[in-house]
Design a protein that fits this description.
292 residues, alpha/beta, Rossmann fold, four-stranded parallel sheet, two-stranded antiparallel sheet, binds adenosine-3'-5'-diphosphate
Length: 292
């Protein structure tokens, strides 16, 4: 069963949710002017983007930490490509923080200046696939596919938003020397979020006190993000979800794929991704109990 064109649009070989992008605007991104002190968060969908947005937002904005400024993380670390409201990013004050799911080949060419900091967060693809399957049910922007087997085949064929997970991570990894980039994994964040925040701060040249780091750890927890209207999209953009079918902040764990995939599905998944994944310079973690 092919994906429905009602929900997805292909732009230069990359799939987006149809109602979230404007092709002419995407055309303009190649020449989008990059500043040295911009910070870009790059992820494949369902890899912990919003969690990382929250961490970045908390690192940079005291008003986000102490709750004195009532801006959502979407306003704080907006999507470069999903600018359907035509928000003025050009005149935004520095340092500008951006989020993107774009593959390396579609980001503004100025991002290859070797100075602007880019943070790529990767997650093991089985959990990504399962998370995207559930998200496709709750998000009104995506086609709901009831049969997980059909969904998984689409994922493996790259016929989902974000296109091929392998192409995305391989592309960014192979071109790492073109960018000033830090690679992190969802799993290392999950296992030791404090250390991951310190890594991010170190990369960004941010020196924060232990107390502030503790505060970031606390406010970036799943439990606190769930109840905060600035960080839970179920609350700040409820019209985008069918909340009877689930929540954006779902399980937030490592190895949830084991509850969904049959042994045969898992083996089929391995068969498609294993060879290319082994060539990637990252260590993936597939279960919460695994050492990392
Ligand atoms: P699950 O569906 O596996 O629970 P993204 O923001 O890239 O769309 O990723 C969403 C995934 O990140 C969801 O995974 C979500 O639950 C998880 N997530 C969001 N906030 C998190 C947090 N604070 N800690 C751990 N996982 C989080």
């Amino acid at each position: 069963m092919e994906p429905s064109e009602k929900y997805m649009i292909e732009y230069k070989g990359f799939y987006f949710a149809r109602d979230t992008v404007i092709p002419e605007y995407l055309d303009s991104l190649e020449d989008f002017e990059i500043r040295d002190n911009d910070v870009f968060l790059v992820t494949y969908p369902k890899s912990g983007t919003m969690w990382s947005q929250q961490i970045l937002s908390l690192i940079y904005h005291e008003g986000h930490r102490d709750g004195t400024e009532n801006l959502t993380i979407m306003d704080r670390v907006p999507w470069l490509e999903h600018n359907i409201d035509n928000t003025d990013y050009v005149n935004r004050t520095s340092p500008r923080l951006f989020t993107t799911h774009l593959p390396y080949r579609l980001v503004p060419k100025g991002l290859r200046n070797g100075r602007t900091k880019v943070i790529y967060v990767a997650r093991n693809p089985k959990d990504v696939c399962v998370s995207l399957y559930h998200y496709s049910k709750t998000s009104v922007l995506l086609e709901e596919v009831e049969d997980f087997n059909i969904f998984m085949e689409r994922f493996l064929a790259g016929k989902v938003i974000g296109s091929s997970w392998l192409d995305h991570i391989e592309g960014w990894s192979a071109h790492r020397d073109d960018f000033n980039i830090l690679f992190l994994t969802y799993e290392e964040m999950k296992k030791d979020v404090r250390n991951s925040i310190l890594k991010i701060c170190n990369f960004l040249g941010k020196r924060l006190t232990d107390k502030v780091i503790d505060d970031i750890v606390d406010k970036a927890s799943m439990a606190n993000m769930r109840v905060d209207p600035r960080t839970n999209p179920d609350i700040f953009v409820p019209t985008l979800f069918d909340l009877s079918k689930g929540s954006f902040l779902r399980k937030g764990t490592i190895g949830d794929w084991k509850d969904m995939m049959t042994v045969a599905q898992s083996e089929r998944f391995d068969c498609v991704v294993k060879e290319r994944m082994e060539k990637l310079p990252f260590k993936f973690c597939w279960d919460i109990k695994d050492d990392f």
